[in-house]
From TrEMBL:
It comes from the Bacteria. This is Site-specific DNA-methyltransferase. Gene3D superfamilies: Vaccinia Virus protein VP39 (3.40.50.150). SUPFAM superfamilies: S-adenosyl-L-methionine-dependent methyltransferases (SSF53335). It comes from Paenibacillus zeirhizosphaerae. InterPro entries: SAM-dependent_MTases_sf.
Length: 154
């Protein structure tokens, strides 16, 4: 995903970071990563995991995580001029992430969609928005596999 949609060495902003994987992979691939998570314990755990990998030399720098409500992404990540906004969709009506009152996964579906849209709009401050769907990604993966097969002679 990062290599397909973010310029080399670009900045990634993740409004629903959850665990550490997306941040660590971004940094491993040479991208600058800032993730936002509602729960401080998750942010702390992510930073600890990344620090271990940094100390082992697996990544050159540690991803950045911010604890906060992504509905305030404009303030929380004001310092980030992202080239790519990437995240897993928050839980919506599939489950509840936390019991925090600010957690949008606690909202009914209509309110959730409104909050989610507002977060994404704030994340794209410059007004340039490109949305990729699962079908778009499936096509890109099929093309990438075909190109790789050609390169190795399949």
């Amino acid at each position: 995903m990062y290599r397909w949609f973010c310029p080399k060495g670009g900045k990634v902003l993740d409004p629903f970071s959850g665990g550490s994987v997306r941040g660590i992979v971004a940094e491993y691939l040479g991208y600058s990563y800032t993730g936002i998570d509602l729960r401080q314990e998750q942010v702390t755990e992510n930073a600890e995991q990344a620090q271990l990998l940094y100390e082992k030399g697996a990544i050159d720098r540690s991803p950045g995580w911010i604890q906060g409500d992504s509905r305030q992404i404009g303030d929380l990540a004001a310092h980030v001029e992202a080239d790519f906004v990437f995240s897993c969709l928050s839980y919506a009506d599939l489950g509840v992430y936390s019991d925090a009152p600010a957690d949008i996964s606690n909202m009914d579906y209509a309110d959730f969609l409104t909050a989610y849209r507002e977060i994404i709009i704030q994340a794209f401050r410059d007004g340039e928005v490109e949305i990729k769907t699962v079908d778009d990604l499936k096509k890109l993966i099929e093309i990438d596999i075909a190109l790789q097969k050609d390169e190795i002679g399949f």
